[in-house]
Specification:
- By secondary structure, this protein is an alpha/beta fold.
- Helix content is 36%, strand content 22%.
- The chain is built from 5 helices and 6 strands.
- Strands 3-4-2-1-5-6 form a 6-stranded mixed β-sheet, sandwiched between helices.
- Helix 1 runs parallel beside helix 5 and helix 2 packs parallel to helix 4.
Length: 153
C-alpha cells in the first residue's frame, strides 16, 4: 500500500520520523510535511505566495505551507504515483474534543478525505513526548489491520 504521511509539527519532528519508520516496514511511504511547526493551523490554505516542494531525501518533501496545503499539493500536484491512504501524525500532544477543530494534523487527514482518500490522524495524548515509539507501534498495527480487513475505497 502507498501511504502519504504528513503532520503539523514539521517534517523534522520526532512523531513523523517514528510514524515513517514503522509504516515503511510494511508499506511504501511518502512524507510531505510543513517545513516548520504549523500547529493549530486548522484547515487553512496558503493563498498569498507560491508553494514549492523541496526534496529533502528519498520520498521526503518539505513545503513552507500548512498541513492541508501539503496534503493537497501532494495528491493534486507533484506526486506522480497514486496514494492509497493518508496518515497524519504522530502529533505531539492530544487532539481531543474541540482540539480537532484547530489541529493541523487532523486537518491534513480531513484534506485527504475531501480528496476522496481514506485518512487517519494519529496524536500522542501527552506533552512529555516519551511514548512516540509506542504510538508508532500502535499506528503500525492499526494501519495494517485496516489494510488487511477491508477495501480502502
Amino acid at each position: 500500500m502507498k501511504i502519504l504521511i504528513s503532520n503539523d509539527d514539521g517534517y523534522q519532528s520526532e512523531g513523523i520520523k517514528i510514524l515513517t519508520q514503522y509504516l515503511s516496514q510494511d508499506h511504501k511511504v511518502i512524507v510531505v510535511a510543513p517545513s516548520e511547526n504549523k500547529s493549530a493551523a486548522s484547515s487553512s490554505l496558503t493563498l498569498d505566495k507560491p508553494l514549492k516542494p523541496i526534496k529533502i531525501d528519498t520520498n521526503i518533501y518539505s513545503i513552507d505551507a500548512t498541513p492541508s496545503d501539503c496534503v493537497h499539493l501532494a495528491l493534486c500536484g507533484f506526486l506522480d504515483e497514486a496514494i492509497d491512504l493518508v496518515v497524519t501524525g504522530i502529533n505531539f500532544g492530544p487532539n481531543l474534543g474541540d482540539d480537532v477543530i484547530y489541529s493541523g494534523t487532523v486537518a491534513g487527514a480531513i484534506e485527504g478525505r475531501f480528496l476522496g482518500l481514506p485518512s487517519v490522524a494519529i496524536s500522542l495524548a501527552s506533552w512529555e513526548g516519551k511514548n512516540f515509539d509506542t504510538a508508532g507501534k500502535v499506528a503500525q498495527q492499526v494501519i495494517n489491520k485496516i489494510h488487511t480487513s477491508q477495501p480502502l475505497q
